């Protein structure tokens, strides 16, 4: 089952594990969401909830379907050796071109370099290194959702990274235990609930 990238027997599908991880990560994110006003200025948040509400179908499709698939292919798919490293590398290169801030470009270039080295260095050390850098890169890339990064204090930075760090760790564990399809389903479900919660809270 571990060697299969996208297919899995429905009887063996880890519904309980995915549900447990989903509840845990959503709990962290809900707590994070309600503490925003206390711990960080909303002006530093780059999300435009009014704009999302006006284009809800488009944004929902991107956030719930497109982004989870792309991110799982870029950050989780290559955690095990397979013939689709070129696909992960291509997505990362697109990220490097599209992201404006040089910090994010450097993070992704470093991550891509480690992935390429890992292809030729198959050891437990390199596997662990790639896994850790994958989680860190995935987490750091989500800082692009915020503006005024130069004004954010250290504790605010750590606070911002917590939800995506949790998602990155749990999605990675799911990928390593099962396959990429399972991590995509978890990521999609998580994003779906987050969109539902944030949109409804904004309306309130």
Structure, explained:
This protein is mainly alpha-helical and 204 residues long. Helix content is 73%, strand content 0%. The protein has helices spanning 15-34, 36-39, 49-54, 56-75, 85-98, 102-120, 124-141, 154-177, 180-203. The chain is globular and about 45 Å long.
Short description:
This protein has 204 residues and is mainly alpha-helical.
Largest sheet: none
Query: Which spans of ≥5 residues are poorly predicted at pLDDT below 50?
Result: none
One letter per element, helices H and strands E, the order comes to HHHHHHHHH
Q: Tell me, what's the shape?
A: globular
Q: What's the gyration radius in Å?
A: 17 Å
The beta-strand count equals 0
N-C termini distance: 45 Å
Helix share, percent: over 70%
Count of alpha/pi helices: 9
The chain-level structural class is mainly alpha
What's the number of structural domains?
A: 1
Share of β-strand residues: under 5%
Compute the average pLDDT. 85
